[in-house]
From TrEMBL:
Residues given in the record as Zn(2+) binding sites: 40, 42, 95, 98
Family per record: Belongs to the beta-class carbonic anhydrase family.
Protein name as it appears in the record: Carbonic anhydrase
InterPro entries named in the record: Carbonic_anhydrase, Carbonic_anhydrase_sf
Lyase recorded as keyword: yes
EC number of this enzyme: 4.2.1.1
Enzyme class: lyase
Keywords: Lyase, Metal-binding, Zinc
Cofactor stoichiometry and binding remark: Binds 1 zinc ion per subunit.
SMART domains with a match to the protein in the record: Pro_CA
The keyword Secreted belongs to this UniProt entry's keyword annotation: no
């Protein structure tokens, strides 16, 4: 049986009463994590768990496929908002059996056009950056690293310290993906 929103709200009440520790306001100068991690929204990819990350240790940006291009604004915002202080490393983590490896941009667009044909012009302009096939998984990480390292708005020190990995959903292990560029 699926969890309902009301059940989640009840869990929040319990959390607020028994576990929550007040967080500092931005004006109180919380310490900034050195890492920003781009990862997939897939529920099988528990980044916080497989890296044993505590709340204050990393910014985690999740989107379909874990693609950097789809959330570059988040990185640019954080680095600008923090005035380049704190963030030192960008981590890109894609994973095996990702839905993005089983889809193409055209396939997603075709599905959307079938559902809402009156918006075909808008749909044609969308970019999902799907991977298309499991064989291109490692290359998708390299593409994201290339995108980071060549993006003219990404701070050079941050781009130079970008790292990429593939997380195996069966073994739980991260494998580094090299980038020569």
């Amino acid at each position: 049986m699926a969890t309902t929103w009301d059940e989640l709200l009840e869990r929040n009440k319990k959390y607020a009463e028994t576990e929550h520790k007040p967080q500092p306001y931005l004006s109180e100068g919380p310490s900034l994590p050195p890492f920003i991690i781009f990862s997939c929204i897939d529920i099988r990819v528990p980044v916080e768990r497989f890296l044993n990350i505590q709340t204050e240790e990393a910014f985690i940006v999740r989107n379909a496929g874990g693609r950097v291009k789809n959330s570059i604004n988040d990185l640019l915002f954080l680095d600008t908002f923090t005035q380049g202080k704190g963030l030192t490393t960008v981590i890109v983590i894609h994973h095996t059996d990702c839905g993005y490896t089983h889809n193409t941009d055209e396939g997603i667009k075709d599905g959307l056009k079938a559902r809402v044909p009156n918006h075909a012009h808008e749909i044609r302009q969308l970019e999902f950056n799907c991977i298309g096939t499991p064989e291109k998984l490692e290359e998708s990480v390299r593409e994201d690293l290339r995108y980071l390292k060549t993006h003219h708005l990404v701070r050079r020190e941050l781009a130079d310290n970008a790292k990429g990995y593939v997380w195996d959903i069966k073994t739980g292990k991260l494998s580094p993906i090299g980038y020569e560029g």
